[in-house]
Amino acid sequence: MKTYIYEDNFVSLLTLINHLINLNIKPDDIKPINHEANLFSEDIFTNLKPDYNLVKSLANNNSVFKIMTNVYLSSDSKKELIIYYFYLNYLKYGDSILLRRNLKCVSKSLEISSYVSREAHKLKGFVRFKELANHVLYAKINPTNNVITILANHFKARLKNEYWILHDTKRGIISIYDKKNYYLIPEQNIKIDSNYNDDFYTDLWCTFYDTIGIKERKNDRCRLNFMPKKYWQNIIEMRNEIEKSSK
């Protein structure tokens, strides 16, 4: 079994996939360079130069490019192979690829892309920023998929006049915004002062949330559908619910 290795970024993955297709190679697997080695697999390093022109040309087809990007951001263990076969068929069928749901790679790509988009959309409403002592806004997230870039683009437009930090604690990635651009860096490269300025407003918001709730209309099952429990730990107003469930 041969596993082709790429630098852990989308451009390098597409460069490798395009290279394999040009050589008519169907890989057994494709994995990032930091993947957990398999004793029964031979890792093959190609050392290709990232092809940014390829990515720019693909980006012209917004629908196809978005689907491939979302699949890459997913937590699916076979996402690289899914993208490989999706791109292979895109080269064959062109724009009509999205209509060919009978192809497993297409139906799977659409399914994964939709899942990633839904999670990113939910988190746009679930992210809760706190103000640090240095007046920088800070929020933690722990999404199933790697959606921090989608959220960073959203908050770049939504909070364009604020300094903010978005911290994916699951992957150890931090996005920092300086009122112009955002940057992704490993969490070990920055030390964050966890002292907050907004304890008063946090308590005020929780009191407001608890007060407006109508006891007779409470529906826990419905709430879980819209606000899955896996996100509760970073949602300020759910702290009382977490304390109740832990007792």
Can you offer a commentary on this structure?
With 247 residues, the chain is an alpha/beta fold. Helix content is 45%, strand content 14%. The protein has a five-stranded mixed β-sheet with strand order 4-5-6-7-8, covered by helices on one side. Strand 6 and strand 7 form a beta hairpin. The termini are far apart.
Write down the oligomeric state.
single chain
**How many DSSP H or I helices?**
9
Derived from helix and strand composition plus strand pairing, the structural class reads: alpha/beta
Identify the strand order in the major beta sheet.
4-5-6-7-8
Give the percentage of residues in beta strands. Answer: 5-15%
Question: Can you count the beta strands?
Answer: 8
Q: Which whole number gives the mean pLDDT? A: 89
Q: Give the C-alpha Rg.
A: 21 Å
The SSE string, one letter per element, is EHEEHHHHEEHEEEHHH
- N-to-C span: 50 Å
Q: Mind describing the biggest β-sheet?
A: 5 strands, mixed
Large-scale geometry: globular
The residue fraction in helices comes out at: 40-55%
Please describe the structure with a list of short key phrases separated by commas or semicolons.
247 residues; alpha/beta; 5-stranded mixed β-sheet; 9 helices; 8 strands
Structure, briefly:
By secondary structure, the chain is an alpha/beta fold. The chain has helices at 10-22, 52-59, 62-73, 79-93, 104-126, 148-158, 199-212, 220-226, 239-246; strands at 2-6, 29-32, 42-45, 130-131, 137-141, 164-168, 173-177, 182-186.
